[in-house]
Amino acid sequence: MSLIHLPSSDEDLLAECRVETFKSSGSGGQHVNTTDSAVRLVHLPTGIRVTSQKERSQYLNKQECLSKIRKKAALLNYRKPRRVATKTPRSVKLKNKLKKTKESLKKKLRKAPKRDEE
To answer: For residue 19, what is the domain's CATH number?
Structure first.
């Protein structure tokens, strides 16, 4: 999958988007319920869709949507870095060997001692 490239200026990004306005719901009182202050932006080249109805102003909601589109694109562009396998350090190898020797000695002590039959 290729990376998503967005224009750096808000005006150019807005030109690539379809803007839909609608009446928002929730807190904000009667002013919010009577005006088309909520905004939905759809970035046409990528299909990213975001909405904002947090503010009472359509302009502020539009700015919020633009920042949400940038965040979403950055999230989609993120690729997990490849894991670089590292060598086990000598100190860890020695520690493991010591632990193994200790365990084997423990097991040897569990066995019944050999009898000398004459």
So the answer is: 3.30.160.20
